[in-house]
Design goal:
Blueprint lengths: L3 H11 L12 E4 L8 E5 L4 H10 L3 E4 L16 H12 L2 E4 L2 H5 L4 H8 L3 E8 L6 E13 H11 L8 E3 L5 E11 L4 H6 L4 E5 L3 H10 L4 E5 L1 H5 L1 H13 L5 E4 L24
Parallel strand pairs: 2-3, 2-11, 3-4, 8-9, 9-10
Antiparallel strand pairs: 1-4, 5-6, 6-8, 7-10
Helix pairs in contact: 1-10, 5-10
């Protein structure tokens, strides 16, 4: 009999808890390690829609990238949004396991999955840990250079669609071959991307001032900004593969396709104002 504990063993071997940042909350959130496991669901966000999906599938395990209870709590009452999810999972017999910054730093990890989706051959971490193999982000190369505008289109085709789409900042004709990627919010690694000498940097949640200051410096890569959820969604198939391989096909493992990006609508702004005489 395969159990939830067997899945945890496999996931922690692939994404060692020791790689997690000190502020992070990873591992088993709720559920019985001794419970028999026949079906698992992998997602980015443990939210109402993915918990619904796990229950509908009859899964005994929900594997998520983002933690449910990242900040300290004094209770999980069912009268709170997160408490309701915990109670629902417990009642339905669904265990929740989270692999967050440990999956970001693992080799392979979140950014390897993103790089693979973009057609990059990974050459190493963007910001390496002491062992040189693990760390945040990845640097990789395309088989051949292409204009930045075409590369932005490549990113958009490779990732699931979101309301915000994919944004690029840089010369559309700039040749791009060497690329840095960092799944999730990555503007704190703009300096590392510049130091790596890459042509483009793909990440999520780029803020106005850090991006503007980076571009004004003039020596760094062009920027591609994608939705946080979309940048990490390729990891789900990687984690599902860990379970399929380690558990010998005894557990039906599904990747959630429910879009949990919070943005749902996009509207174009007004045209740029031009000078107008009112006299």
């Amino acid at each position: 009999m395969t159990t939830v504990a067997d899945a945890i063993t496999a996931l922690e071997a692939a994404y060692p808890p020791a790689l997690a940042e000190g502020w992070d909350a990873v591992g088993l959130v709720c559920g019985d390690p001794a419970q028999e496991l026949t079906r698992a669901l992998v997602c980015v966000d443990p939210v109402e829609s993915t918990v619904d999906e796990a229950v509908e599938l009859g899964a005994q395990l929900l594997v998520a990238h983002h933690p449910l209870l990242l900040k300290g709590v004094h209770g999980v009452g069912a009268d709170t949004p997160k408490g309701r999810l915990v109670h629902r999972m417990v009642r339905a017999g669904v265990a929740l396991f989270c692999a967050h910054t440990n999956a970001d730093s693992a080799d392979p990890g979140v950014s390897d999955a993103l790089a693979h989706a973009l057609g990059l051959t990974v050459t190493g971490p963007l910001s390496a840990n002491a062992d040189g193999r693990t760390g945040i982000g990845r640097v990789g190369e395309l088989a051949a250079a292409e204009p930045f505008a075409a590369f932005v289109e490549r990113v958009a085709r490779a990732l699931p669609a979101t309301a915000g789409g994919v944004r690029g900042a840089g010369d559309p004709d700039r040749p791009v071959r060497r690329v840095a990627v960092s799944g999730g919010a990555g503007d704190s690694y703009l300096g590392a991307a510049t130091a790596a000498g890459v042509d483009a940097y793909v990440t999520a949640d780029l803020r106005h001032h850090p991006a503007g200051e980076h571009l004004a410096a003039g020596a760094g890569p062009a920027l591609v900004d994608v939705a946080h959820w979309a940048s990490e969604w390729p990891w789900c198939e990687q984690a599902a593969g860990v379970l399929r391989t380690a558990l010998g096909g005894t557990v039906v493992t599904t990747v959630s396709t429910r879009r949990t990006d919070p943005w749902t609508v996009q509207a174009a702004g007004a045209p740029t104002p031009t000078g107008r005489s009112t006299g």
